[in-house]
UniProtKB/TrEMBL annotation:
Database matches in InterPro entries: AAA_dom (IPR025669), DNA_Partitioning_ATPase (IPR050678), P-loop_NTPase (IPR027417)
Gene3D superfamilies: P-loop containing nucleotide triphosphate hydrolases
Pfam family, one: AAA_31
Entry protein name: Chromosome partitioning protein
Organism: Natronobacterium haloterrestre
Domain AAA: 17-191
Highest rank taxon of the organism: Archaea
Record-linked SUPFAM superfamilies: P-loop containing nucleoside triphosphate hydrolases
């Protein structure tokens, strides 16, 4: 538990998680915000990145003014990862630091297409934001959580290559079979192109209702990815209420039985991704 994590056991570098599925509306943003909230609730320091030009996570974290802010914005920082001061793109939130999306991100795919090493820009930006250089704030992050847009291409590539750990939300319905197959084919090609290993760390069956079809899909998920922990997130209006309040379900008064599910996801990710990174400093 957090209380037992001694200060000298800080992690060497943050574990990065990319919340992704090119299918729209499956719960990427909901899972990203609430996983970040769960990690914070465990005492972890989280940097959240909203890579989606729609800016839903930016809105759901109460930062709509950042979405309409004047340049320099996240897009400028992706073009010039070491050149934009962190205070221009990193916003305070009670649970986490947030790299906000911006309306400019609608041009990200075409802008990045003209750049060399376009898929590596977020990796460079995170390396810069994770270091203390030039920051007068505590930037000793334990986790980086990236929310992706609902399509494959230059922007999502940046999330996948930078994080190399996937959290995959999917609805418990038959259309998810094809979307997961397409995602894994795509990720496989990206691994070859960039000589990286991208690992699914969590599969999140989302918006589950009590139907036979949902039960069958949960079994299919277990068979399809036997090595990857499967989490069951039920349909709850409390997620929408927390979104409207600008936070995760962990920061609102209302009790929610899905806190346990996200807490368990956070605990397992902590164990899987950070145990090898703990190091004793002098
Ligand atoms: N478990 C859930 N229970 C109830 N509502 C949910 C749940 N998960 C997501 N929703 C709702 O479904 C809608 C879509 O969710 P969300 O925005 O998280 O999906 P997304 O995959 O990020 O969408 P996009 O592909 O557009 O980025 C939102 O209105 C959200 O509040
Ligand atoms: Mg989203």
């Amino acid at each position: 538990m957090w209380a037992e994590l001694k200060s000298h056991e800080r992690m060497a570098e943050p574990a990065r998680l990319c919340v992704t599925n090119q299918k729209g509306g499956v719960g990427k943003t909901t899972v990203a915000i609430n996983l970040a909230g769960a990690l914070n609730d465990r005492g972890r320091d989280v940097l959240f990145v909203d890579l989606d030009p729609q800016g839903n996570a930016t809105e759901g974290l109460g930062l709509l003014e950042a979405y309409d802010a004047e340049p320099p914005t996240l897009l400028d920082a992706l073009v010039d990862p070491e050149g934009v001061p962190r205070e221009e793109i990193v916003y305070d939130h009670e649970e986490m630091d947030v790299v906000a999306s911006n309306v400019d991100m609608n041009a990200a795919a075409s802008t990045l297409a003209a750049e060399d090493d376009a898929e590596l820009r977020l990796d460079r930006l995170l390396t810069s934001l994770e270091s203390d250089a030039g920051a007068d704030v505590d930037v000793d992050y334990d986790f980086v959580v990236v929310d992706c847009p609902p399509h494959l291409g230059a922007v999502t590539d940046n999330g996948l290559v930078a994080a190399q750990n996937l959290v995959i939300p999917a609805l418990a319905e038959p259309t998810s079979k094809r979307s997961l197959e397409l995602l894994f084919d795509y990720v496989g090609a990206l691994e070859m192109d960039h000589d990286v290993e991208i690992e699914p760390q969590a599969l999140v069956a989302n918006r589950i209702e009590n139907t036979n079809a949902a039960d069958e899909m949960l079994e299919w998920f277990e068979d399809a990815l036997p090595e990857t922990p499967l989490y069951r997130v039920r349909k709850r209006v409390a997620f929408q209420r927390a979104f409207s309040a600008g936070s995760s379900i962990f920061a609102v008064e209302e009790e929610n039985d899905m806190r346990e599910v996200f807490a368990s996801m956070a605990e397992t990710l902590d164990e899987r991704l950070t145990s090898t990174r703990l190091e004793v400093s002098a």
